[in-house]
Amino acid sequence: MFRKFGGSAPGRWLFSRIICWRAPYFSSISPRIEVLEPGRCVVRLKQRRSIQNHIGTVHAIAMCNAAELAGGMATEVTIPGSMRWIPKGMSVRYLKKALGELHATARVQAPDDTTTAQDLHAIVEVRNHADEVVFDADITMWVSPR
Asked: In the structure, what pLDDT confidence band is assigned to residue 4 with cuts at 50, 70 and 90?
């Protein structure tokens, strides 16, 4: 579906809304999926009052939400259709104040063996407008045959 809609800004907006409709919690951050390809997903997130904390920066959990969305989408398009996934755990680091427009980029390696259940790691970096990493995460995905 992203191949069909992802080539234009309105298409990426529509695709992102469809994903949020299927997984409503993600709509709380109003994400925009900018890139989606095997091994990689980029999600854009804009700072606004509803996702700010008490010091005026993007809230830590909003960035966790963007990281989980990017990691999940990257996993979905990386594994074969004969497999399924679910997040198993996530470790995060908050590295700098997060301000303005942010981009969460997830990278996932394809599984070597598609017949055995296993852990895959979605490595996510959230960068600010100056291309500085403000947050990173390692999301453990449990991947298994359907």
From this structure: confident
